[in-house]
Amino acid sequence: MGNEKKYWRGIGQFADEQAYAQAHQNEFAEHVPVDQFLGDNSAMQDAGTSRRDFLKFLGFSAAAVTLAACETPVMNAIPYVVRPDEIIPGEANWYASTFFDGNDYCSVLVKTREGRPIKLEGNAMSKVTGGGVNARAHASVLSLYDSGRACGPMKRTGDKWSDPMSWTDADNAIGKALGGKTVAIVTSTITSPSTLAVIREFKAKHIVYDAISYSGIAKAHAGTFGASVIPTYHFDKADVIVSLGADFLANWLSPIEHSRQYAMGRKVSKDKMKMSRHFQFEAIMSLTGANADERFPVKPSKLGKIALEMLSGTSSDAGVKKAIDALKGAQGKALVVCGSNDPAIQRVVCEINKNLGAYESKIIDIDIPDNTHQGDDETFAKFVKEEMSGMGAVIFYGCNPAYTAPKSLGFAEKLSKVPVKISFADRADETASLCDWICPDSHYLESWNDHNPRKGEYSTQQPAIRPIFNTRQAQDTLLKWSGNNNSYYIYMQNTWKVLFNNVADHSSFWNQSVHDGIISLPTGSAPEIPAADSLAVNKPAAKPEPAKDEAPVEAPVTTGNGITLDEAKSAIAGIKEATLELVVFQSTAMGNGSQSNNPWLQEMPDPITKITWDNVVTMHPMDVKANKLFGLLEGEGEDITVRFDQMEDQLDIVTVSANGHDMKLPVWVQPGQARGTIGIAMGYGRSDSFGNTSKGVGANAFPALGMTSGKTMSYEGIEAKITPTEEKHWIACTQTHGTMMGRNEHIIQEVTIAEYVSKKGQVSESEMLHTYAGEKRAEEVNLWEDHDRPGHQWAMAIDLNACTGCGACVVSCNAENNVHVVGKDEVRRSREMHWIRIDRYYSSDTTPADSDKYGTKELYRLMESPTFDNPKVMFQPMMCQHCNHAPCETVCPVLATNHSSEGLNQMAYNRCVGTRYCANNCPYKVRRFNWFNYVGYHRPMEGINQNPGHNPNPIADDYGRMVLNPDVVVRSRGVMEKCSMCQQRIQAGKLEAKKAGKALDDGAIQTACSQSCPTNAIVFGDINDETSLIAQMLHDGRKFEVMEQVGARPSVFYMTKVWNREEEAGPEKAKGGHGEEKKEAAHH
Amino acid sequence: MRENQTEAQPETDMRNGTSLPQRRVFVILFFLAAFTLFGTNVASAQANGEAIFDQKCASCHMASDEKSTGPGLMGVLSRIPKGDWKYKWVTNSSALIASGDAYANKIFKDYNSVAMTAQSLSNEEIDAVLAWADTGPRKKATVAGGPTGPVAAAEDTGSGDAIYIAVILLIVLILLISVLRFTRINLRNAVRERDGLDEEPAQPFFVAARRWMDENKTKVGLIGIFLVCLFVRWSWYELKDIGVYAHEVKPGVWKGYHPDQPIKFSHRIHAGDNKISCQYCHNTVEKSKTASIPSANVCMNCHKAIKSGAETGKEEIAKIYAAVGWDPEKMQYTGKEQPIQWVKVHNLADFVFFSHQQHVVVGKQECASCHGDVTKMDAVEQQRPLTMGWCVECHRTTDITKNMESNKYYERMHENLKHKYKDQTKFTVESIGGLECGRCHY
What we know:
The complex is a heterodimer. Chain A is of the alpha/beta class.
């Protein structure tokens, strides 16, 4: 625009424009002397290195590098300098110990290899858990190697944590900070007499708070019997069990113990043709509800009224009437349990049980109280609201109220007023993040302790490894701070001298107890609660204690008076029904969330929803429709069906508001959910600092908890409101098909107890096949020659009557067989690696018998949809069936999978080339393919994996890797794997027998799943041994094989499920069987 | 013809100086013959007692008064009965025992009823051996790192012979070629001389060879291809050996990986000379799947007292002291421990499960079956290929009938097998499923 001004780029251009322009043409401002060596021919020719030389050097270097690379790397072997006496490299050592995290109690045996705990198994000597372990206890061994744990004591300044410091520094600093202050210590339930003594010696106000509280039961018993105790229950002695929302098989009180007892009452045989009858009234579909003979979905607000009706003995409701009749018919052999924490409802239940004679017959034993849940909500709530902010210092041990306490308590705000806040948490969890100090407690596998779960029942806890990080067990820390220089190990022994003062030889008693892990005193001879001053032996002589007014060590002090029946009745009358009631429940995998960062548990499919890596809002289909959510529904009006085939789609996210707390979670259509209720599992939605695995998984439901009129935490019947959002969420569900499509006979056979009795136990049905020689039973038709089994023939029996679907076997198998954790995104692609899965089937309203009503397509669509009001549920553990004529073996092009002379379907990983033909040809779909090298697999998937970029596989972590079983190969990319029936255990068991020079004992070899099953539903053995249990089960009238008509001759067989329910009329009866289907069709 | 030539020889010799080639041929033939004879003489001269002892006796006998599998041979001549007894015993001891000879039976009983392997030695040789050993004790100097076991020794001489012969053949071949070449030139010159032509100008060998190669391209090509093939084949097999710790020297004889260890621990001194049982150090072999490399404190059981080794003096033992933290001056532990990083010699792949206790306790295998005779090794060497084929071979051939009869665990299995395979008396590991994938791979 007429701008004639000229700008120079520099003085050079101004001075000599022409030269500048010339120079400007050059690529490089500075002269590059290429021509010095390229332009000069003679220089090039005289150069020391010719082109040929260059090629020679190149060739030689390439060859040299290649050849050098051919050498196998040098392997070093580093033996111990001084090998500990008890360690034999290559052999496992077992230590008895106890798992107790304030929620689950389990007496365990710890398997260690070269000093590393790698597996937990049940301690069969325990009278409480009897050798059973649940999924959460199993997975706790992996929590030991959680790299998210704190590496030492840390101090917080602002939002930043200091680097881990030495314990001396921390002790000095904290000692100064605590000086002269009133201190309160908030703990979860402490069952350990020695720990209680330590806490008492520390002279602080002791508040017991459990995230999952049962104080309602204690209060009710205080009102009924004047003793504020939680009794022990004996489900095995009950003929009729009525549960009002108590998930006693998976979570309630002592699930491992209850599962074992329950299964004892449910198992049938020729000698015992009767079983207990189980009614369940509940809002969510719980594991226990799924196992019930009769299940009735009810809103939580109705539970109190149902209890009252049961007490009065009359009801207008058909379901309740049925239960009342059953209870009446089993006077003295009936049991009612209730999952509510409302003392009012529990008080009524106490009264019902009293009337039923359950206390008299010791089905409920109040003389042997359960010490594992002593949390007192009222005291805790009062402490938080009124006393905490006035404290000089608060210490948190084994509890995490910032995460688990109801929002209404305003815990975080009150805590901020406390000058000194210390947490013994093993990481910067939600409460610890609010504290000034973290003094990390050691993992239970690194610590000494004793436990007293029941009156007269003691168990020990011993370290199986030295602390991995610079942690110190809380008891030692407290002792130090109390000025006691004894280690807790010594302190514990001293306590025992007082506790078991009638023992003559303490040192051998101690050794025996630590060896067994169990001290079982004869009933009634519970040790004298040691008088406080007698424990002065623990204290340094310099500081004699005035120990007069101290509480006894063992006493579970629960304050508050009991509730009378009348008060209870009026309280129940005051319970209002809400339009939408929220139930906050424990999921089978996550429990109270103390192990949220455990990848085994995160990837364990929920027994009911089969969802991994998420918590969801479970909702009845009609409620989903009413809230205008798409969910997985199809159809119009009332005629909707649940589309299970769409479970791979994204789910709608809703905002759930309850008690002032908002949770954004995807909606899951849950058949069997009571209408007008939603369920959300607790234990999810951890803070980012809790760990990489739990980061971003789900939402926390604890703050939504309410308080009952009886001043206890309320977990159900919470008034809630949902607001749909536009957001969607990927879900990783392992079972996207919910029904058996009318093929029950081929998959799970079931009968009622009446039929079982009338057929004298011969109930299993065999498929009839058409052959040239007429119709034959499938087992008589064989396409192949039978194989030689000169030695053993391994087989497995699964009693569907005992299996509750709890999933303990899944985690146990994970630990034993180094099964990879693949992460949410991979699970969503059906690439989970679990060797054992538990199939869950819902019943459907539509059966093949309805074929004349609908067209084929419509029929199948309806058959795919479970009954959504109240489906019957079946569980079936499914793993490699070790077929004797295995379809996978015939298609393997490289013979990587083949059969052993012991009946095992073997898988040679190093031979496998990964064609996956075998998986295609497997009728049971139990083969798992390593799509990636999951050891070093990082696949950031924004929006699908909650924590993109983090590989949750423990094997990918330097610490997590220590949990690997050295006897099992870690499979790499591109190979197929599957259940090996714990071949490593079989080989080891055989070797023991060979070395002893005797025949193999039945039961000497247990697979990981059979060992860990709390109900003994899985039996493993040698059917060539005529005397073995498995050989007898083979001839039982309930034995059937899954998909027998395929002719694969599986080595795993199942025992028909027997229900204690009445025959169902109508189409239900006809579901499945071809024969019956034909008959039905003829009738039409 | 030949006669003619030889007869003509002096004539031509006398006639002119061109009879050089013939003379050379003769000389060469003479030397060859002499060399062969001389060679044999040397061999027979070496057939002395010591050599025979090393070859035949040393695996079971010591040339001192120490007992081994058999008695030490020092002073043997004064112990044994006079006369032919020694010949009978050495050549067929079983027959002598069976004949009821008192001394033979005594020896037999004293040494765990293991009959001495019959040796095919002449009486002179037996005399030589016994004479040599009788005057012991003699200490055998062993070449460090060299395979000196009976099998290895035999194999060594074998391969030595082969090279010896190859070298001689090569020399003979070269000589033959040059002789023939000269003969040919001389003959041609003789013809030319006869025809009155000039002598052909002498050509250097390489020029001649090149010319010949130019003229015979097909032959050269074929030979070239043949040589290239040979070379490729050789390199292929050489390359295959890279990284594999053991390779086959001769069919059935393996030799291989013997890395330097951080401490020059000698199995020959400990297990061989001092006769320390394998299980004294590898003490978990019967309890575990691993035999375990002994922890350093095991060394201290002896080396607290033995502070100086026979061959390395204090140097190597000091390394043990450093590892366990032992102050030899003050005779006390310092607490500063430093684990020894041994180099693993016998290394199985991670996907193989191998159990020592299965093989040693149940299978009653000797350590040497897989590890070779370590009593002869300074640095341990992997003498077996440890490949799957090698494992399988042993499982196919090892007769375990006796093991099955003596172990109640196998009772039912054995009955079933006997029932099914009525004519079969010998059962191998394979018969009881020892070749199935799942036995080792899981």
